[in-house]
Specification:
Elements lengths: L3 E4 L3 H14 L3 E4 L2 H10 L4 E5 L7 H11 L4 E6 L4 H10 L3 E4 L4 H23 L12 H13 L4 H8 L4 H13 L3 E3 L5 E3 L1 H18 L2
Parallel strand pairs: 1-2, 1-3, 3-4, 4-5
Antiparallel strand pairs: 6-7
Helix pairs in contact: 2-3, 6-9
Length: 217
């Protein structure tokens, strides 16, 4: 089973999340600070790290790079009480895979953990197939859904994208769209509608090949 590390200075919060993970069947451990988490990461492997944005000492943003130096393959979910595009972009640039806002629903947290674990496995398969590089930006399942949606619709705007993918958190969607734009997989036209680039269409072909490979495993 994939192991999860909970990093938060609020002991009651840590224990509540631990109970959620216990009931979901995820082996887990807790740390009350980034410093304590670093000590655990040196000796233990965690596939997912739930990291609080605001903590005394080393805060969540500055902790990301330190965690990644020790466990570069671990997936980090940033947990914040102050959701903003700026915070999300900063976290992803530092190396986080996702973020979720407090207070969150239990199902939403468990789904996100499931998604980043899928991302972890997806990246492993990409390495096996020697498809590193552009495809690594597609390890997130939401981004793959976006590419397929844009292929099916040719051109599509932000709100329609959110509605078709059933994503209520528009900040999160904007974050994923920006990641795909930075990778030159999608672009916007003069009317601000999104569409696949030539590179994006090539990536879609690679995704179809990868899907076929994974279905045969």
């Amino acid at each position: 089973m994939n192991r999860v590390l909970i990093v938060d200075d609020d002991i009651e919060y840590r224990e509540n999340v631990k109970e959620i993970l216990d009931e979901a069947g995820y082996p887990n451990d807790m740390a009350g600070s980034a410093k304590e988490a670093l000590e655990k990461l040196v000796v233990q492997q965690f596939d997912v790290i739930l990291l609080d944005f605001m903590m005394p000492g080393i805060d969540g943003i500055n902790a990301i790079e330190k965690f990644k130096k020790i466990r570069p393959n671990s997936k980090i979910i940033m947990i914040t009480a102050f959701a903003s595009i700026e915070n999300a972009v900063t976290a992803i640039k530092k190396g986080a895979s996702e973020y979720i806002s407090k207070p969150f629903k239990i199902d939403a947290l468990l789904l996100m953990i499931k998604q980043v674990i899928e991302e972890f496995r997806f990246e492993g398969d990409i390495k096996k197939l020697k498809l590193e590089g552009t495809l690594s930006s597609l390890s997130n399942s939401i981004r793959r859904e976006i590419i397929r949606l844009f292929h099916a619709n040719k051109k599509i705007r932000l709100m329609e994208t959110a509605r078709k993918l059933d994503i209520e958190d528009h900040t999160k969607l904007i974050f994923h769209l920006k990641s795909l734009k930075d990778a030159k997989i999608i672009k916007q036209d003069e009317q601000r509608a999104y569409l696949l680039t030539k590179e994006g269409k090539k990536v879609l072909e690679c995704l179809n090949i990868l899907d076929q490979y994974l279905s045969e495993k």
